[in-house]
Amino acid sequence: MNLDYRDSLIEAWLNGTLDDAQFAELEAELLESAAARDAFWDRAAFHGVLSEAARLAWGGETEEEPTRWLPSRQQKNWAAAVLGAAVIMAAVAMLLLSPSNQAHAPAPARLAASVPAATVPLATITRSQFLLAGDAAESLAVGKAIGAGRVLILDGALELTLKNGVVITLEGPADLDLGGEMEAFLHDGNAVVRMPEGTDGFRLKTATADVLDLGTEFAVKASHGFFTDVQVYEGAVIATGRSSGAAPRFPKRLEAGQSARFSPHGPEEPEPIPYSESRFVRRLPADAGIPLPGTQHIPRDVVEEIRQWGRPQFDSIAVHRAPKTVTIDGRLDEWQEGPGFVSFRDGTPSCPEWADGRMMYDDGHLYIAAHVGDPAPMRSVVDPAINPGDGWRGGSVQVRVSTDRQMGWPADGNTAAYFAQRHLEPTPEQKVAARNLRFAHLTLWYHAASQTPCLTINHGMLLDTLELNPSGFRAAFTRDADGKGYVLEYAIPWTSLNCADDPPRAGDMLAAVWQVNWSDAAGRMRRDHMVEIHNPHEPLQINVWERAATWGRAEYW
Amino acid sequence: MPADNSRSPQPAGQPAADRPGEATVRVQQLFVRYQSHLRSFVLGLTGDFGITDDIVQEVFLTITAKASDFRPDASFRHWMFAIARFKVLESRRAARRFSPRVIESLAAALKPDTLGEDRLEPLLDCLAEMPPKMQELLRLRYFSQHGPTELAAMLGRSISGVNTTLTKARDLLRECVQRKLGGGPGVVEAAS
Fold this sequence. Notes:
The structure holds two protein chains of two kinds.
Chain A: H1 3-15, H2 20-32, H3 34-58, H4 73-84, H5 87-95, E1 121-133, E2 145-147, E3 149-162, E4 167-180, E5 183-194, E6 203-205, E7 209-213, E8 217-223, E9 227-234, E10 236-241, E11 252-255, E12 259-262, E13 271-272, H6 300-309, E14 316-321, E15 341-344, E16 354-361, E17 365-373, E18 396-402, H7 416-421, H8 428-434, E19 439-447, E20 452-459, E21 467-468, E22 474-479, E23 485-493, E24 509-519, E25 526-532, E26 552-556
Parallel strand pairs in A: 5-6, 14-16, 14-26
Antiparallel strand pairs in A: 1-2, 1-3, 3-4, 4-5, 5-8, 6-7, 7-10, 8-9, 9-12, 10-11, 12-13, 15-16, 16-17, 17-23, 18-19, 18-24, 19-20, 20-21, 22-23, 24-25, 24-26
Helix pairs in contact in A: 1-2, 1-3, 2-3
Chain B: H1 22-46, H2 49-65, H3 76-90, H4 100-109, H5 120-129, H6 132-143, H7 148-155, H8 159-181
């Protein structure tokens, strides 16, 4: 075969334009001739390197292609993601989009001769569990290579292995900006960084601290710019807090077994906090987690939608007058006359995750009871003495209520994040509404190690204060005989809900919403959740904790 | 078959997985290091960017699942490429794909370092020196991953015209890279 013709066949193969006859000719030549095979790899390898170079050269551009052009693969993926996502989350996702999914454009004049840092493939997603990606879930699939830029996850966890061997385990909700092989910025969430043996120097920054690794495994929790918790599992780190004032702060060395909180408004020295092995997720198992029984027939995007936002079936719950005596014993004897709601996580009665939720009241208390179907009941390792704000993660029930009769239903109040994510400036009235202390966010869980029922209450919509096990509350849990569920029963004094002087009474229509959280078998990570009692006039794609208008009706009988 | 500075640092004869999960971490780190080589290998055999991405991802999942099978004293790239070869053979998605005999012959013919990344830096320089219209065509083909048929429709040209220009662009880049690696001036001398 003529060499020029042979090479033209190889080039046409690489271009994808061989016809049947030419393809047969090329196959025959490749089988017959060692020189042809060498020539093939010579050109094919260059084709591969050119593909890599193109990603590096143009990967960071964001201009639009002319509309007459057909959508590229990346654009098609992004378009599908946008169409599949809900309106609000799409807006958030667009803000936080990873570079690999952005539209790219012709920019010959801006073609960089050197490798733009933002586009170099830096890491591979090596594991994930219960993952709910902030962008299209496909874009964070295990095995996916990612470059520098934002990684946003809404729930679950993923593990990133960087090219230099550094492993980052990110637990959602979290927002990480991967800057390079040796640095990242954690905007929010939990991250554990594990260095390869014999290496050091990785820097993890947050809004309130800067952590430099000295050859170690360490963890960082970044909380919306309020504070940063640092915990060292092995080795040591140098951590430096950021001050809200002008004065810089001195670095602090933390050794294995130590934990500290850095707050810009706090004292100069970081505040020691208790060390807890289970505070962070250090390793993800290699298995893919518990499947979703009964949902295999549902398209993936629908499953993801349910996982993210739930599938509420009820828009109201009756809050019955309690009998004269309510014994808090983890049994539902006194509740027979007061049905609430029964709902299955995926809407199918065969689903092992379900909840029967009830509410009652009297002059002194709000009563909450639930029978929860849970394959891993009452296993939470979240220690209320160490991380009370994480009580929801290890299996829990959360009930958010308004006791403000003047406001009635629907309720009015949003978190600061609600406005920030939508680029809105709250009005003075909205700021006041957010601080309404008649909103209460209750988290109810059972700490397995101490065999203790727990309760935390956030008041208002800013979620900036947390009350643990308030005075006067009573609670009991019982495990189902078959080990597939549990019952919880709580009596919460109105004093704890800031309304003892004017508690809800018969005829009131107030706001309430339920979330039931199911954990992994270890009782550490949230595996799934369900939302019930939802305002049907509000979009489903809003987190109920950030907007009280999404809450359904609590009708006091 | 390419080899071979991809052996695990663990001494020969030691069990692959001395602690649970250690072998998995080791092969995943090696995968990350050699991922671009793998991609070039698969792209050559499939000729399709989308199928290549899928297969690379499948290879990752396979090496993760089979991490304990990998002998630390063996060549990681040899092992990974063998898995990739099977994945290419299994692939049924391509409109046209090489016969198993051709794939085996080509895989056996691949020489060490053919897929090395030493050409990447000079190639980026050469890309920057290309005439704008060729840059644009290369961007559409290799970054946006449009096929020649799409490109022809987009640019109002014939498919053969697009093919010819792409081939010419690659030839110019290859010459430029060779000059740069050989110490020459490395300027692309062509009109668009």
